[in-house]
Amino acid sequence: MNQVKWPLLIYAILAAASIIGIGIAISAKSIFGAIVSILAVVIVMGLGFKTKRRMRENGEI
Fold it and tell me: What sections of the protein cross the membrane (predicted)?
């Protein structure tokens, strides 16, 4: 069985929470909240992909 890659799991949870935040902001009719959540998704996903690339280059994946 493979080991859990904790940093990648944390990034995935944060990205999912940001996507949920978009839905909550839309239901609350908060444009500011939606924009902040969209930016959070972009940043967290970017960091996740960057971390995955670094881990792959180091042979950890």
Answer: 7-25, 31-49
